[in-house]
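Per reviewer request, we include the raw input and output of the structure prediction for the construct analysed in the revised manuscript.
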Amino acid sequence: MPYTHLLFDHDGVLVNTEHLYLQAIQEQLATLGIVLSEAVYLKGMAYGADPWALARETGCDEATIDDLRDARDAGYQQLLRSQAIDIAGADQVIAELAHHFKLAIVTTSRDDDFDLIHGLNGYPVTERTPRIVEHMDFVLKRSHYQNSKPDPEPYRLALKRFGIEPVQALVIEDSERGLRSAVAAGIDCAAVSHPFTASQNFDQARYRFSDLSALKRFLLNQ
């Protein structure tokens, strides 16, 4: 059965932000003298590990960790405002696919971060704002579900919102965490290559693509 619905991850697939999120975490852990390497972060990320566990190991209490998390959030938003985060061709690919498929974004992004990126809910729209969301039937952000990826809940919720069976959908992911979530939900997953997550394991992906344009060519010829 040809796919009729596409469920897109956000960070790393539609916008180039994952390295900035890591940077914001690293900067806060560094205030405690903790060095979080990219390799260690990516290994834990695949299973949904909590990077603040490193702070707890030094004796940090939860109130201090809450402060670090708040500072991480502020630092990340500053990076989002100041750094280029576009993925070449993403807007055009999504606009074209919207003529042929039902589309949704299923993201682990905090609502405020997602809204800042896309100029939603009071955040300003600028010349750098992606035009992706306008083509989506809906967006599931972190506040919309209880258990985050790699738990299957986010993608199961997307299926329920569309009222479809798993066989009708294709998930598009760039991370092992997202791939695990899709597989656990019983949905085929296409992994789109991204340098940041290239070291992760994508053996369970149904398809592998070099970029969104390659994905589009496949989908329009299925």
